[in-house]
Specification:
The complex is a heterodimer of chains A (87) and B (186). With 87 residues, chain A is mostly helical. Chain A has one domain. The termini of chain A are far apart. Helices cover 85% and strands 0% of the residues of chain A. Chain A is rod-shaped, with a radius of gyration of 38 Å. The relative contact order of chain A is 0.04. With 186 residues, chain B is mainly α. Chain B has 2 domains: 95 residues, RNA polymerase sigma factor, region 2, helix turn helix motif (Rna Polymerase Sigma Factor, Chain: A); 89 residues, Orthogonal Bundle (Arc Repressor Mutant, subunit A). Chain B is 69% helix and 0% strand. The termini of chain B are far apart. At the A-B interface, α1 and α2 of A face α2, α3, α5 and α8 of B.
């Protein structure tokens, strides 16, 4: 008997095997639920970080704008110049 | 053009509307067929069950893009092939190869007397010696008895590619077996 024939017989026998029965429905559903919760909770810390960053950025930007306007105001610049010369 | 079975289509539509129980019904309807397929990829009960789960989790992820041009079972078989092949490729990178001479039944005596489960185990170990690509094409063509066209559909390869790959893999397997027999006779 050559290898080819032997393999054919082996494959024929192997095909007669009954594979084990499984019941994966509960586990699949649990994994899908877990994935959804993970996906949903994954956004929560990111949302907090974004809100905090916005809360800090807006007052800093307003203060910076006010400071810029003060420093570039000609009257303020003249007053500062006078004060420096007086000193 | 083939269409999905009515029950599958209905459950897919219900599932897309957010009813998880519909997907459970799909899993229950197809799990034994997928289990039989995945048994060719792993004979370890725990790994086998995990692979079956992986197939259904991946199938769920692709439900949004499912267009019902082919039966749901066909799409599932493609995903199962992809999951199994990926598993073999990962294992091929990690494993140490089991020596062929550890297979007790590897003698040139007619194989038709071997018990079916033993034959399955022996064939699994024999194919395990081949690279994943060769193993996949032989498993689909001969063990699962798919036509060239079906293997092409399941793997995404061209028909010519399937034929060439099958021919090469068969030759490798025959050589491997003949070498094992020669070593046994020495």
């Amino acid at each position: 008997m050559n290898a080819e024939q032997w393999l054919r017989q082996l494959v024929d026998r192997a095909r007669m095997e009954t594979p084990p029965r499984v019941n994966v429905a509960d586990r699949v559903m649990a994994r899908l639920r877990g994935g959804r919760e993970e996906a949903a909770t994954g956004w929560i810390p990111l949302g907090w970080v974004t809100a905090l960053a916005v809360a800090v950025t807006i007052p800093v930007a307003l203060l910076a704008l006010a400071a810029w306007e003060t420093w570039t105001d000609p009257l303020a610049a003249m007053s500062i110049e006078i004060v420096w010369r007086a000193l | 053009m083939p269409v999905s079975s009515q029950a599958d289509l209905e459950d897919i539509q219900i599932c897309r509307r957010g009813d998880g129980e519909a997907y459970r019904r799909l899993v229950e309807r197809h799990q034994q067929r997928i289990a039989a397929m995945m048994w060719r990829f792993s004979r370890d009960p725990q790994t086998h069950e995990e692979l079956v789960q992986d197939v259904f989790v991946e199938a769920y992820m692709s439900l949004a893009t499912y267009r019902a041009r082919a039966p749901f079972a066909h799409g599932l078989a493609r995903i199962a092939t992809r999951v199994g092949y990926r598993f073999w490729k990962q294992r091929a990178r990690e494993r140490s190869i089991v020596a062929l001479d550890e297979c007790d039944e590897l003698s040139p005596e007619p194989a038709d007397r071997i018990e079916a489960s033993q034959a399955g185990e022996l064939l699994h170990r024999l194919l395990d010696r081949l690279p994943p690509r060769d193993r996949l094409v032989l498993t689909l063509r001969y063990v699962q008895d798919h036509s060239v066209a079906e293997v092409a559909r399941l793997t995404g390869w061209s028909r010519t590619m399937v034929k060439v790959q099958t021919w090469r893999a068969r030759k490798k397997l025959n050589n491997l077996l003949e070498q094992a027999w020669r070593e046994e006779n020495q």
